[in-house]
Specification:
Elements (H helix, E strand, L loop, with lengths): L6 E6 L5 E8 L6 E7 H15 L1
Antiparallel strand pairs: 1-2, 2-3
Amino acid sequence: MVNVKRRVLTFTAVNGTKLVLSYNPLTSFNWVLLTLVFADVISHDVDLYITRIR
């Protein structure tokens, strides 16, 4: 896994759900960590942070 970089992808599932997929190569055993999260979980926390700043 030489020169493999971390990636974050956002996409919409066939049912209309917005998702975020994170791809992280691990050095141990050349594994890859995939994390799939609902986009609104992330955006909800960001929205709370932004409203506190204002």
